[in-house]
C-alpha cells in the first residue's frame, strides 16, 4: 500500500443547513429535500440513496413547503410568497409565481395530482390548476382570521381542532374520514370528520409534534417531534379473527438530536429530517422483501458532491461554503517519524483568503487550478474567475472581468492539469472550453449537448495530458471528448446507476468511473472499450461488503509513479485498489487491518488482495495525493457540527 | 396423648409467600398464596389467614382457580400431584397424580377437563409445557397420565408463560425470544430480539410475559427495564411492537387489568406502575412499597391488585392504587447477623428483617408481629452501595431492654459503629430508643450480653470487641431540670494482654462475668470488676461461651472454632474437653437438611410436651428452631404435619357457616350441654353419651361440600346408626408417665449460643393444660386417671 505522509485537515468549518421539508415521490422513488438555506436536493432512493441533483439556495427564498405533482413535477413554496417549479432536467428553476397571499406555509397536491393547494400567511387557501407547462390560479377559499398552518391534504374544510395556545402543526385526512392532527402540546389526535369529535388521543412527547406523513395504503403513518424522536403508528387488527382495527403507536426511533421538521413515508421506509441536518431513512423491516443491505438504516449528512478542491503545486485547499470561499495553505513539517506517529508542525496552516459572494445566491461549484493561481466559482446567475498573484507571503486577488454572456451559471468547473484551460459545464447541457492566459482568457470551443437532450453535465474529468475530457450527467452515459480535435470521441455505455466520480488515469488514459451502487469500471479511452481488469472484476463481482457501503465514492485519483494503483474514497473509508493483486472473493476479509510488520511475508502475500482500505479518517470529505509521498485528508467530525447547532430541547436523562 | 413417633424435621412456617403469584377468589374476598408445602387462604379485608390447605408433600408450585367452579382451587406441587380444593371449607376434594415434578400450573376456561403444567422430562434445564387431561372419576386419588405436549424449551418460571385471547394462543419467553403457539392452527411463531454483546442490546433478555385479555397484544418485560407490547404476531413478517420504558432495572412481573385498559408492571424499584391505554406518557405510580416487586396479580372481579414482594409480603391494592392490606411473612431477604433470639415478652422469634429492621415473628401463628426500625434511615436499594447493617442485638432484663449494634464499613480503616439501647415502653407496647452510643468500640463488636440476674437492680450490659477491650455499661440517672430520664454510660473497660475479646457471658446469678480473649477465658467478679482467674487451654479460638444453669451453674462451657467443646468447673478450675460427638450426646439427628444450618434457637413451649423416652426429653420444655442457609425455618417435631396446627379454625368456620337447619339446632343444643357435662364429668363419674362432634359420620356429613356428598339414601342409614349409643367406648390413649423434669443442661449439646431455657417450674404434671388439676392431690389424680381410661378421648377435641 505504501507509506504516506498525511495532512489531516480538520479546519473545514462546514455546517450543512437544517432540513425543512421532505417530499417523497412514489413513481420515480425519488425524495426531494429542502433545506433552511433554500437548497433543494433530489435523492434517488433506487440508486442507493444517491443525491443526484440539487438546486442551489437563495437567501430570500426559504422553502416552507415542498410537493410533487403528477408527471414528477416538483413545486415549492416559501416565505417570499412564490410558488416555484423546478426543472429536473436542466437543474434550474422553471418559473416562480407569486401566490399573492404573503408567505406560503403549506402546500398540498390533490390525490389525482392535477391541483395544487397552498396555505398562505394571510389565512387564505388558494387552489391552482396544474397545466402542462405552468400553474394557473383557480379559486380562493374563504379567509380565516388566523394564519393557515394546517396542511390540507384534501379539499375540505375542517373546524374545531385547534385549542387555545395549541398550534396544530400538521393534519392528515384519511379516506375513511379520520383526521389525524399533530400539535404543539405533543399530542397525536384522531378525529371523526363527520361528527367533529375526538376519537383517540396519544400523548407522545413533552414538546411539539411537528410533522406527520401517511403511507399510501393508509395503514401506517409517521410523526416527528421536537425532541428528535420519530414515532411510527400502525393500523393493526384488534384480534386476529375480527375485522376491527385500531391505530397503535409502535416503534419510536431516536436518530435525531434536534427537531424533526419533516417526515415522509415511502412504501418501505420512514424518512425524517430536521434541524440537526441529518436525513435519516429507516427501512421498515416488515416491508423489506429480502434482508439485504437496503434494510439498514441510512443517515445522510454530507452532500454527495465535492466541496473542496486542491492545488497540488502550492499545497492549497479551497473550501466552498454556501456564501463564501476559503483558501488555506497546508502546514508543513520537517520532522520524520514511524508509521502512525503524529508529526509536529513546523509551520501552521494558513488561512489565506476569505472570498464572499455578492448577492443572495448560494455558490453552486468552485475550483482552484492545480498551479494555484486561478480560482473560479459560480452561482445561479453569475460566473466568477479570479487570478491570484503570490509575492512572497502576500497574495493579491484580481477578478477577471467581462465574462462572456454564455458563462452565466456553471454546474461544474475544472482546470486542466497545466492550468492553461478551464472547462465549464453549464446548466444548459453545454460544455465550454476556455483558454487562460496571463490575466485574460479566450473562449475556445463549446460542445453542445446531444440533440434532443437537455440533461446537464455535473461531473467532469480531464486527462493529465490534457487530451481527453470526460463528462457525465445524471443518467445518461459518460461522454468523452477529444480536446485536440474538439470533437466527441466516444460515449461509455449508460449504466443503471448514476455516476458519482470520474477520473482519467495518466499515461494509459483509462477512464475510471464509480457508480452509486459502488461498482467501479475502468474504460480505456484510446481503445474505446472496458479494460481487461474491469471485465475481470465485473465477471467476478465485488466483495459483498464493498457493495454494502452506504456512502458514494466521491473522488478518484491516481499515483503518478504507480500506474496499477487507483485511489478512491467515500465518507467513511479511503481505498487503494492495486490492480496487480488478486481480487478478493466473498470469503476473504475485505477490511484487512495493516498486517504487523513482524509477520512473515508469506502470510502477508497470501492474505493480500487488491483492495487496501483504511478507515482511520472519517467522516472524510476529501482526500487527494499532493505528491508521491503526501496525502491530504479533510475530515469533518460530526461532533463539531453538532456543537455549532442551536442547543436541542433539554431532556432529563435518567441517572444524571 | 403424644404418641412416641420418631422425631422428624419439619418446616414450621415462615415459608415464602412470594414464590408464585397470589390468586384472588372470584369475589375478591380471599387471596390464595403458596407457602411452602401449603396453600394459605387469607381474607383480603382483614389480612387474616382463614385456611391452610395442607396435603402436598413438597413445595407447592402453582395455584389457579378452577375456571369451571370458582369455589374450587387447583394446586400443583413438586410432589407430582395436582390437587383440587374447596377453599371455602378448606377441604381437599381430589388428587390427580401426574408423577412428574410439576413446576407451574395454568388453567383455561376453554380447556374444561385439562390443565397445563410445566415439567422437565429429560435434561435438567429443558422445560416443557404440557396439557394434562384430568379424568373424571369419583375416587379421591386419580392417576392423570394423559399428557399432551404443547411447547418445548421454555423457561421454568410461570411468569414466562401466558395464555391469551381466551386460550387461542400461548406465549412463552426465554432468553432472547418470544414464541407464540396457536392452538387452532397448531403453529408456533418465534420472534427473536437482538442479543449482541454490544451495550445497547446486552440486556434484551425477556423476563416475563402477559397477554391482553381482549386484544391480540402480548406484553413482555425485559432485563433492561423495557416493556414491549407485541401486536400482529400472527404474521411472522408484519409483527410489530411498542416500547414502554420507565423501569431502570429488570421488569419483574407484568399484569393486565381485567378489561385490558391498563398494564401493571413492577420491579426492583419497589414501585407499582400502571400504564393506562398502553401509552408511555399516561402512567400512574404507587411508590414506596418497601421491597422488590416479585409478582403482580389481578383479581377476576377487577377491583383489587396484589403485589408479592421479595421481603415475603403480599400487598393487596385497590383499583385506585391504594394499598389496603399487607400479609407479611417471615422476612428473609437479608443476612441474619443477629442470629435467632427469643423475645422474653412475646416469645416471638427475633431476627434481622427488612434492611435495618428487627422483626418479631410469631412462630405459633406464622406471621410477623412487629417490625422495629433500628437504623432509622432511608434504605436506598442499589447494587454496590455499602449499607448500614444491624449486626448484633440482645435482650436484657426480661425484655425490658434491647441493645443493638449497627455498623458500616466502606474501607478497611473506616468503620462506623453505633450501639443503641432501647427501653420497652409499656404504654405503647414497643421499644423506644433510650441511648445512642457512637463508636462504642474501636473495632467490630463481637458480643453483647446483659446481666439477667434478679439481684442486680442496675441493668448491666457487657460488650466485647475486636479492639481487645470489653466494656461494661450500666444504666444511670440522666435526669435534668426538664425531665426525669435514665441513660447508659460506660462503667468499666477491661482488657487482657491486647487479645481480641471474642465473647462474653454472665453467670446465672450475675456474680461472674466470663470474657474470652481468643484462646483464653477470663473470669471477672461483676461487683468489683477484678480479674478472678483465667483459663488457658490452647484448643483454638473460643467462639461461644456459656455458663451452666441451676445445678450445673458451676460449669462454664466454651465452644471453639475447631469444634471442641470445653467445660470448666469453676469451683475446682478443672477442665473437661470433649468433642460433641464423643461423649454420649442426648440426641443426634443426621441429615436434617441439605444446607448448612446457620443459626438455631430453643424456644420455650407454651404448653410443655411430655416425652417419655430419654432421647426426646430435651424437646419437652422447649422447641429447637433452626435456620438454614437458604433461610428456611425448620424445627423438630414428632407430630404428623396434619396434626401440628390446631384444627380449631377449620371447625369454627364450618360451624359459622352452618345454616339454621334442624341439624343446627341439634348441634347447638349439644354444645350447650357440653360445658355442663364437662363439669359433671369431673364431679360425678357418669358415663356420658358421645357428642355429635365426635361421631365421624356426622362431622363428615357436615364438613363435606354438598356437591361431593354421596346420595342421601346412602348417608341416611349411616347417620342414624351413628346416633345410636355405642356399647364399647374407645380406649384412652396411652397415658404418659410422669416425666422427670430434671434436665439441667439441655441446651449444651448445641454449639450455638442458644440458651433460653426457662426456669424449671415446680409442677411436675403437665400433660393436661387445665389449671384446675394443679391443685389436685395425688390421690385425686389417680382417680382421675382411672376415669380417663374409661372415657376421655372426647375431651381432647375440645
TrEMBL record, chain A:
The record, for Gene3D superfamilies, names: YVTN repeat-like/Quinoprotein amine dehydrogenase
Tell me the GO molecular function terms.
Answer: RNA binding
Choose any GO biological process term that the UniProt entry carries and state it. Answer: maturation of SSU-rRNA from tricistronic rRNA transcript (SSU-rRNA, 5.8S rRNA, LSU-rRNA)
Taken from the UniProt entry, a GO cellular component term is: 90S preribosome
Which InterPro entries does this UniProt record tie to the protein?
Answer: Quinoprotein_ADH-like_sf, UTP4, WD40/YVTN_repeat-like_dom_sf, WD40_rpt
Instruction: Give the highest taxon in the source lineage.
Output: Eukaryota
- SMART domains per the record? WD40
Pfam families to which the protein is assigned, alphabetical = WD40
Q: Which PANTHER family match?
A: U3 SMALL NUCLEOLAR RNA-ASSOCIATED PROTEIN 4 HOMOLOG
Its recorded name reads: UTP4 small subunit processome component
Q: Which organism is it from?
A: Lynx canadensis
Automatic annotation (TrEMBL), chain B:
In residue numbers, the region (Disordered) covers 731-768
- Which InterPro entries does this entry report, sorted A to Z? Beta-prop_WDR75_2nd (IPR057644), WD40/YVTN_repeat-like_dom_sf (IPR015943), WD40_repeat_dom_sf (IPR036322), WD40_rpt (IPR001680), WDR75 (IPR053826)
Q: Name one GO biological process term.
A: rRNA processing
Q: Per its UniProt record, what Gene3D superfamilies does this chain match?
A: YVTN repeat-like/Quinoprotein amine dehydrogenase
This protein's UniProt keywords: Nucleus, Repeat, Ribosome biogenesis, rRNA processing, Transcription, WD repeat
UniProt xrefs under SMART domains: WD40
Stretches assigned to the WD repeat-containing protein 75 second beta-propeller domain: 340-575
The WD repeats are found at: 53-95
Instruction: Please tell me whether the keyword rRNA processing is annotated for this protein.
Output: yes
Does this UniProt record's set of keywords contain Chloroplast?
Answer: no
Output compositional bias ranges, type Acidic residues: 734-755
From what superkingdom does this record's organism come?
Eukaryota
Q: Which GO terms describe its cellular component?
A: small-subunit processome
Q: Name one GO molecular function term.
A: RNA binding
Q: Where in the cell is it found?
A: Nucleus, Nucleolus
Q: What is this protein called?
A: WD repeat domain 75
- Organism, scientific name: Lynx canadensis
Amino acid at each position: 500500500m505504501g507509506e504516506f505522509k498525511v495532512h489531516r485537515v480538520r479546519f473545514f468549518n462546514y455546517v450543512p443547513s437544517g432540513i425543512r421539508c421532505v417530499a417523497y415521490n412514489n413513481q420515480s422513488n425519488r425524495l426531494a429535500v429542502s433545506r433552511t438555506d433554500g437548497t433543494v436536493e433530489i435523492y434517488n432512493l433506487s440508486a442507493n440513496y444517491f443525491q443526484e441533483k440539487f438546486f442551489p439556495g437563495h437567501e430570500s427564498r426559504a422553502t416552507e413547503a415542498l410537493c410533487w405533482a403528477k408527471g414528477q413535477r416538483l413545486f415549492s413554496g416559501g416565505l417570499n410568497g412564490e410558488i416555484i417549479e423546478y426543472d429536473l432536467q436542466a437543474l434550474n428553476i422553471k418559473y416562480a409565481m407569486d401566490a399573492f397571499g404573503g408567505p406560503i406555509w403549506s402546500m398540498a397536491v390533490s390525490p389525482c395530482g392535477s391541483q395544487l393547494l397552498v396555505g398562505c400567511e394571510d389565512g387564505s387557501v388558494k387552489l391552482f390548476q396544474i397545466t402542462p407547462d405552468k400553474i394557473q390560479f383557480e379559486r380562493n377559499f374563504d379567509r380565516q382570521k388566523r394564519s393557515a398552518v394546517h396542511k390540507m391534504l384534501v379539499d375540505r374544510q375542517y373546524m374545531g381542532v385547534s385549542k387555545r395556545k395549541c398550534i396544530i402543526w400538521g393534519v392528515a385526512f384519511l379516506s375513511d374520514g379520520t383526521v389525524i392532527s399533530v400539535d404543539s402540546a405533543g399530542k397525536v389526535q384522531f378525529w371523526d370528520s363527520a361528527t367533529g369529535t375526538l376519537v383517540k388521543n396519544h400523548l407522545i412527547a413533552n414538546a411539539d409534534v411537528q410533522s406527520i406523513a401517511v403511507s399510501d395504503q393508509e395503514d401506517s403513518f409517521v410523526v416527528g417531534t421536537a425532541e428528535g424522536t420519530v414515532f411510527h403508528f400502525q393500523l393493526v387488527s384488534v384480534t386476529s379473527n375480527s375485522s376491527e382495527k385500531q391505530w397503535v403507536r409502535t416503534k419510536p426511533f431516536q436518530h435525531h438530536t434536534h427537531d424533526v421538521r419533516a417526515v415522509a413515508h415511502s412504501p418501505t421506509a420512514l424518512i425524517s429530517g430536521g434541524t440537526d441536518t441529518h436525513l435519516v431513512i429507516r427501512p421498515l423491516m416488515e416491508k423489506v422483501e429480502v434482508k439485504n443491505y437496503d434494510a439498514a438504516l441510512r443517515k445522510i449528512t454530507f452532500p454527495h458532491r465535492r466541496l473542496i478542491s486542491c492545488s497540488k503545486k502550492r499545497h492549497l485547499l479551497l473550501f466552498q461554503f454556501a456564501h463564501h470561499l476559503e483558501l488555506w495553505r497546508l502546514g508543513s513539517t520537517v520532522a520524520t517519524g514511524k508509521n502512525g506517529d503524529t508529526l509536529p508542525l513546523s509551520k501552521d496552516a494558513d488561512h489565506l483568503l476569505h472570498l464572499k459572494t455578492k448577492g443572495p445566491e448560494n455558490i453552486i461549484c468552485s475550483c482552484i487550478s492545480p498551479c494555484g493561481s486561478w480560482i473560479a466559482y459560480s452561482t445561479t446567475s453569475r460566473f466568477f474567475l479570479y487570478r491570484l498573484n503570490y509575492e512572497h507571503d502576500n497574495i493579491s486577488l484580481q477578478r477577471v472581468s467581462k465574462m462572456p454572456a454564455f458563462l452565466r451559471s456553471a454546474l461544474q468547473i475544472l482546470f486542466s492539469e497545466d492550468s492553461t484551460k478551464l472547462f465549464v459545464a453549464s446548466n444548459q447541457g453545454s460544455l465550454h472550453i476556455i483558454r487562460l492566459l496571463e490575466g485574460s482568457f479566450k473562449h475556445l470551443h463549446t460542445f453542445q449537448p446531444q440533440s434532443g437532450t437537455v440533461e446537464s453535465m455535473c461531473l467532469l474529468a480531464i486527462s493529465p495530458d490534457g487530451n481527453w475530457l470526460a463528462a457525465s450527467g445524471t443518467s445518461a452515459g459518460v461522454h468523452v471528448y477529444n480536446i485536440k480535435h474538439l470533437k466527441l470521441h466516444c460515449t461509455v455505455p449508460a449504466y443503471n446507476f448514476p455516476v458519482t466520480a470520474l477520473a482519467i488515469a495518466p499515461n494509459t488514459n483509462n477512464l475510471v468511473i464509480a457508480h452509486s451502487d459502488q461498482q467501479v469500471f475502468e474504460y480505456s479511452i484510446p481503445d474505446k472499450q472496458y479494460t481487461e481488469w474491469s471485465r475481470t472484476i465485473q465477471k467476478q463481482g465485488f466483495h459483498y461488503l464493498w457493495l454494502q457501503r452506504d456512502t458514494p465514492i466521491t473522488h478518484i485519483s491516481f499515483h503518478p509513479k504507480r500506474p496499477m494503483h487507483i485511489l478512491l474514497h467515500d465518507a467513511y473509508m479511503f481505498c487503494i485498489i492495486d490492480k496487480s493483486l488478486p481480487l478478493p472473493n466473498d470469503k476473504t476479509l475485505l477490511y484487512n487491518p495493516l498486517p504487523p510488520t513482524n509477520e512473515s511475508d508469506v502470510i502477508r502475500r497470501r492474505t493480500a488482495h487488491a483492495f487496501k482500505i483504511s478507515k482511520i479518517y472519517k467522516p472524510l470529505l476529501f482526500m487527494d495525493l499532493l505528491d508521491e509521498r503526501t496525502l491530504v485528508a479533510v475530515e469533518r467530525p460530526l461532533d463539531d457540527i453538532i456543537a455549532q447547532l442551536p442547543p436541542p430541547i433539554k431532556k432529563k436523562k435518567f441517572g444524571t | 396423648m403424644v404418641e412416641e413417633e420418631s422425631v422428624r424435621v419439619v418446616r414450621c412456617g415462615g415459608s415464602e409467600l412470594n414464590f408464585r403469584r397470589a390468586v384472588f377468589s372470584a369475589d375478591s374476598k380471599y387471596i390464595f398464596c403458596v407457602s411452602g408445602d401449603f396453600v394459605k387462604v387469607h381474607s383480603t379485608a382483614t389480612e387474616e389467614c382463614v385456611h391452610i390447605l395442607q396435603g402436598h408433600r413438597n413445595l407447592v408450585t402453582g395455584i389457579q382457580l378452577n375456571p369451571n367452579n370458582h369455589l374450587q382451587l387447583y394446586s400443583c406441587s413438586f410432589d407430582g400431584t395436582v390437587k383440587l380444593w374447596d377453599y371455602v371449607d378448606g377441604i381437599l376434594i381430589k388428587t390427580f397424580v401426574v408423577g412428574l415434578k410439576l413446576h407451574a400450573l395454568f388453567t383455561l376456561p376453554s380447556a374444561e377437563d385439562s390443565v397445563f403444567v410445566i415439567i422437565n422430562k429429560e435434561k435438567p434445564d429443558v422445560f416443557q409445557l404440557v396439557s394434562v387431561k384430568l379424568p373424571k372419576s369419583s375416587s379421591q386419588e386419580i392417576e392423570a397420565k394423559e399428557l399432551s405436549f404443547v411447547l418445548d424449551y421454555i423457561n421454568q418460571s410461570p411468569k414466562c408463560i401466558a395464555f391469551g385471547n381466551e386460550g387461542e394462543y400461548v406465549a412463552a419467553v426465554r432468553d432472547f425470544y418470544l414464541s407464540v403457539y396457536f392452538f387452532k392452527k397448531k403453529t408456533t411463531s418465534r420472534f427473536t430480539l437482538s442479543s449482541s454483546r454490544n451495550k445497547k442490546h446486552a440486556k434484551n433478555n425477556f423476563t416475563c410475559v402477559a397477554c391482553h385479555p381482549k386484544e391480540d397484544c402480548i406484553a413482555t418485560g425485559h432485563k433492561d427495564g423495557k416493556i414491549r407490547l407485541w401486536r400482529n404476531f400472527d404474521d411472522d413478517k408484519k409483527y410489530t411492537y411498542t416500547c414502554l420504558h420507565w423501569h431502570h432495572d429488570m421488569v419483574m412481573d407484568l399484569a393486565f387489568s381485567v378489561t385490558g385498559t391498563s398494564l401493571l408492571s413492577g420491579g426492583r424499584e419497589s414501585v407499582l406502575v400502571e400504564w393506562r391505554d398502553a401509552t408511555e406518557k399516561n402512567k400512574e405510580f404507587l411508590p414506596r412499597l418497601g421491597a422488590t416487586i416479585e409478582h403482580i396479580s389481578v383479581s377476576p372481579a377487577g377491583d383489587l391488585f396484589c403485589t408479592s414482594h421479595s421481603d415475603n409480603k403480599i400487598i393487596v391494592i385497590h383499583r385506585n392504587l391504594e394499598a389496603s392490606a399487607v400479609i407479611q411473612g417471615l422476612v428473609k431477604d437479608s443476612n441474619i447477623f443477629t442470629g435467632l433470639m427469643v423475645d422474653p415478652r412475646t416469645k416471638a422469634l427475633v431476627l434481622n428483617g427488612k434492611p435495618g429492621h428487627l422483626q418479631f415473628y410469631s412462630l405459633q401463628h406464622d406471621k410477623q408481629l412487629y417490625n422495629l426500625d433500628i437504623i432509622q434511615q432511608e434504605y436506598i436499594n442499589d447494587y454496590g452501595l455499602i449499607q448500614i447493617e444491624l449486626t448484633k442485638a440482645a435482650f436484657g432484663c426480661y425484655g425490658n431492654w434491647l441493645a443493638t449494634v449497627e455498623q458500616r464499613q466502606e474501607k478497611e480503616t473506616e468503620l462506623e459503629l453505633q450501639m443503641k439501647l432501647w427501653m420497652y415502653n409499656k404504654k405503647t407496647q414497643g421499644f423506644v430508643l433510650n441511648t445512642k452510643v457512637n463508636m462504642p468500640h474501636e473495632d467490630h463488636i463481637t458480643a453483647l450480653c446483659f446481666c439477667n440476674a434478679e439481684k442486680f437492680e442496675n441493668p448491666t450490659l457487657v460488650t466485647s470487641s475486636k479492639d481487645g477491650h470489653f466494656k461494661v455499661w450500666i444504666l444511670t440517672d440522666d435526669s435534668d431540670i426538664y425531665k426525669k430520664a435514665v441513660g447508659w454510660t460506660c462503667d468499666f473497660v477491661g482488657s487482657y494482654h491486647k487479645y481480641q475479646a471474642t465473647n462474653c457471658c454472665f453467670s446465672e446469678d450475675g456474680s461472674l462475668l466470663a470474657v474470652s480473649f481468643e484462646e483464653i477465658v477470663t473470669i471477672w467478679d461483676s461487683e468489683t470488676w477484678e480479674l478472678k482467674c483465667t483459663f488457658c487451654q490452647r484448643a483454638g479460638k473460643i467462639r461461644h461461651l456459656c455458663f451452666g444453669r441451676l445445678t450445673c451453674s458451676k460449669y462454664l462451657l466454651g465452644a471453639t472454632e475447631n469444634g471442641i467443646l470445653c467445660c470448666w468447673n469453676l469451683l475446682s478450675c478443672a477442665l473437661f474437653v470433649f468433642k460433641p460427638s464423643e461423649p454420649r450426646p442426648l440426641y443426634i439427628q443426621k441429615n436434617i437438611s441439605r444446607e448448612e444450618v446457620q443459626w438455631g434457637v430453643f424456644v420455650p413451649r407454651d404448653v410443655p410436651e411430655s416425652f417419655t423416652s430419654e432421647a426426646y426429653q430435651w424437646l419437652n420444655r422447649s422447641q429447637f428452631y433452626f435456620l438454614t442457609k437458604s433461610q428456611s425455618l425448620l424445627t423438630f417435631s414428632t407430630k404428623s404435619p396434619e396434626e401440628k396446627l390446631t384444627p380449631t379454625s377449620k371447625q369454627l368456620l364450618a360451624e359459622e357457616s352452618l345454616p339454621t337447619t334442624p341439624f343446627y339446632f341439634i348441634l347447638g343444643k349439644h354444645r350447650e350441654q357440653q360445658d355442663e357435662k364437662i363439669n359433671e364429668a369431673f364431679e360425678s363419674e357418669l358415663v356420658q353419651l358421645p357428642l355429635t362432634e365426635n361421631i365421624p359420620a356426622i362431622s363428615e356429613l357436615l364438613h363435606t361440600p354438598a356437591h361431593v356428598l354421596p346420595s342421601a339414601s346412602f348417608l341416611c342409614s349411616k347417620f342414624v346408626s351413628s346416633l345410636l349409643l355405642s356399647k364399647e367406648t374407645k380406649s384412652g390413649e396411652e397415658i404418659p408417665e410422669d416425666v422427670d423434669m430434671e434436665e439441667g443442661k439441655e441446651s449444651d449439646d448445641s454449639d450455638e449460643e442458644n440458651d433460653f431455657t426457662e426456669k424449671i417450674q415446680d409442677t411436675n404434671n403437665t400433660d393436661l393444660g387445665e389449671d384446675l388439676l394443679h391443685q389436685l392431690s395425688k390421690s385425686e389424680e389417680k382417680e382421675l386417671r382411672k376415669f380417663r381410661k374409661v372415657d376421655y378421648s372426647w375431651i381432647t377435641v375440645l
